[in-house]
TrEMBL record:
Residue stretches spanning the membrane: none
Residues where heme binds: 435
Superkingdom per UniProt: Eukaryota
A biological process from GO: organic acid metabolic process
Gene Ontology molecular function terms on file: heme binding; iron ion binding; oxidoreductase activity, acting on paired donors, with incorporation or reduction of molecular oxygen, reduced flavin or flavoprotein as one donor, and incorporation of one atom of oxygen
Name of the protein: unspecific monooxygenase
Signal peptide (from-to): 1-26
Length: 490
């Protein structure tokens, strides 16, 4: 028989076998679209707007459905009830971290974001405790944020009211706050190391949201054998870790166990305490990865939210005017905003929540996984199955937020103008894997935004009606389009 014919028949048999195996497994899993052999349902998903694709699937298959991203099944949770039932009501079972091959390759199961099991619990518990001890939600970190807000204002004054792209300066401010917590020092905005770290971090965020990285994450075999932006991502992570290791070595030489100065000092002390424990999770590699997680998560999410927030305030000058009025009435012009002011500023608080709800920064959050076999809504989900939660479906729920596609602070105000909490506000995710830095992020967003608006009027270079607020990427991150803004001193 012709070798070509044999090859075609063999490949056809393999594809049919793959399809049969997928369909036989699907009998126990939630329903979903029929997958193609090997490719699964990837061709049915719009990589530029994954949230919309998930919404379309949910209309056909319901709030819990199965997609094949490559050969492996992924269960998708769509809507508040399904997400709450899984991540809150059965939070322990759904607390695993799902497969994320490219970042997994970079971190090797260490740190906080991509880790699992006891290592994840230990690192998360220690990090939360240490951040609290250094004042997360208390005065000491508030002082650092206030100081950085003042530095940011001085840098914005140097623009002399000229139109500028605010991306760089809005990256620097939250990055310096997390640097002061991790390294015990802030950087000048023109410091070479600081700029290098920011550049690599920004580049990696763009790569994470690219279509190519989604392909690599769904077909991990490509990571080792194909060129592409994933290699740049891994190199950037390696370079950043090299810098963290240098800082750790400096800390080891200057460490005073009775007077820890920052997060690294606290971790090194814990390493010393655990020295005799052969099962300890507190090792140098873990410290490097935790620092990387804190640095990345503590910088990019806050800076992108601020950048998007200013764009929305440019687009809606009537809303900005109300925030200005509240700042003038509660804070005035002669002192820095503080967290205590927030209780007296319901409109500003509503605006901040609406910014986060509207922009839907991380539409599907990071992937979860079930830690054991579970029966969920009469479906069987095997241990280790990846779970995707559509945060978009919660943040843009039309029953909770009328006209969800409209930017409206009224979504978080009651009839008397008081701030109104919502269980549907899951901008930081929810459950066991909720963002560890939520308290710090909330503080930064309030203090940075109020300090900027206390000192400047915002002016668009085009008619506000012509500003486009559509995200450039709506895959892993929702990134705002580039824009120019003038900061006019008050």
């Amino acid at each position: 028989m012709d070798p070509v014919v044999v090859l075609v028949i063999s490949l056809s048999c393999l594809l049919l076998l793959s399809l049969w195996r997928q369909r036989s497994r699907r009998g126990k899993l939630p329903p979903g679209p029929l997958p193609l052999p090997i490719l699964g349902n990837i061709l049915q998903i719009d990589a530029k707007n994954i949230p919309r694709s998930l919404t379309n699937f949910s209309k056909v298959y319901g709030p819990v459905f199965t997609l094949y991203l490559g050969m492996k099944p992924t269960v998708v949770l769509h809507g508040y009830e399904a997400v709450k039932e899984a991540l809150i009501d059965q939070g322990e079972v759904f607390s695993g971290r799902g497969s994320f091959p490219v970042p997994d390759r970079a971190h090797r199961g260490l740190g906080i974001l991509t880790s699992n099991g006891n290592g994840w619990r230990e690192m998360r518990r220690f990090s939360l405790m240490t951040l609290r001890n250094f004042g997360m939600g208390k005065r000491s970190i508030e002082d650092r944020v206030q100081e950085e807000a003042r530095c940011l204002v001085e840098e914005l004054r140097k623009t002399k009211s000229s139109p500028c792209d605010p991306t760089f300066l809005l990256d620097c401010a939250p990055c310096n706050v997390i640097c002061s917590i991790i390294f015990h020092n802030r950087f000048d905005y023109r410091d070479h190391h600081f700029l290098n770290l920011l550049q690599k971090l920004n580049e990696n965020v763009k790569i994470l949201s690219s279509s190519w990285l989604q392909v690599c994450n769904n077909f991990p075999v490509l990571i080792d054998y194909f060129p592409g932006s994933h290699r740049k991502y891994l190199k950037n992570v390696a370079d950043m870790k090299k810098y963290y290791l240098e800082k750790i070595k400096e800390h080891q030489e200057s460490l005073d166990i009775n007077n820890p100065q920052d997060f690294i000092d606290c971790f090194l002390i814990k390493m010393e305490e655990e020295k005799g424990n052969p099962q300890t999770e507190f090792i140098t590699d873990a410290l490097i990865n935790v620092v990387h997680d804190l640095f990345g998560a503590g910088t990019e999410t806050t800076s992108t939210t601020l950048r998007y927030g200013l764009l929305l305030l440019l687009k809606h000058p009537e809303i900005t005017a109300k925030v200005h009025e509240e700042i003038d009435r509660v804070i005035g012009r002669h002192r820095s905003p503080c967290m205590q002011d927030k209780n007296s500023m319901p409109y500003t608080e509503a605006v901040l929540h609406e910014i986060q709800r509207y922009i839907d920064l991380v539409p599907t959050s990071l992937p979860h996984a079930v830690t054991c076999d579970i029966k969920f809504r009469n479906y069987f989900i095997p241990k280790g199955t990846t779970i995707i939660t559509s945060l978009t479906s919660v943040l843009h729920d039309s029953k909770e937020f009328p006209n969800p596609e409209k930017f409206d602070p009224g979504h978080f105000l009651d009839t008397s103008g008081k701030f109104k909490k919502s269980d549907y506000f899951m901008a930081f995710s929810t459950g066991k894997r909720i963002c560890a830095g939520e308290g710090l992020a909330r503080m930064e967003l309030f203090l940075f935004l109020t300090t900027i608006l206390q000192n400047f009027h915002l002016k668009s270079v085009v008619d506000p009606k012509d500003l486009d607020t559509t995200p450039v990427v709506n895959g892993f991150f929702s990134v705002p389009p580039a824009y120019q803004i003038s900061f006019i001193p008050v």
